[in-house]
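Input chain follows. Return C-alpha cells only.
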Amino acid sequence: MLSALLDLVLPVVCGGCAMPGVAWCRSCAGELNDAPAPARPRVDPGVPVWTLGPYRGARRNAVVAAKERGRRDLAEPLGLALAVAVARLRRWGECPAGPLIVVPAPTRARAARARGGDPVTRMACAAARHDRSLHVHPVLVTARGVRDSVGLSAAERRRNLAGRIVVRPCPVPRALPVLLVDDILTTGATAAESVRVLRSAGFATFGTVAIAHA
C-alpha cells in the first residue's frame, strides 16, 4: 500500500530512459553492460584507463540522475556494471586476480554534501557487494580551493587539482593492487593527479575504470 501511494506522488521511472513503472529497465541494463575498452584521455594518468562507453544514452542519464537528481538506487546498476567490467578485465589478464583495493575518485566536499553523499563511492560499494574480492577504501579527498571543473580546459583542470588531492591517513594494506574508479572520464586530469598521489603514498595503483568517457 505504501509503495503504491509513493508511486502516485513520485512515479517510478527508469533512470536510463524514463520508462515508467521500473527503476532500471532491461534495455538500459544491456546498454550499460558494454565491455570495458581502453581510453586515451588528454591527460595521461600513467596507468591503463578503461571505460564502458561514451557519455550518452543510458550511461549519461544514469550518471546525471545519480549525481544531480538524488537517484541513490542507481548505484546498484552502476555498481553491477563496474563489477562485471572488473571480472572481464580479469579474464583478459588486464586486472590482477585476488583481492583488489578499489579507490573512488575524489569529489569536492561541497558537492558531496549537496548530493547527500558521494555517488561514486556508493557505486563502488555496490560493486563490492557483487564481488567480495573488491574492498572499497575512499582514501582520496580534495583540499580547499578546488573549483568546479565544468567548463575548464585540460590544462586548467590540471592546475585546479595540482597538490589539492590528498590521501587521508588510513590502515589500508599497501601491498594489494589498487584500482581507481570514477563515473565520468573527461580530460583525465582527476585520474592523473589521483594516481600520482596514490603512488606517492605507496599504493600499487595499476589502472582506472570509469562508467563513461566524455
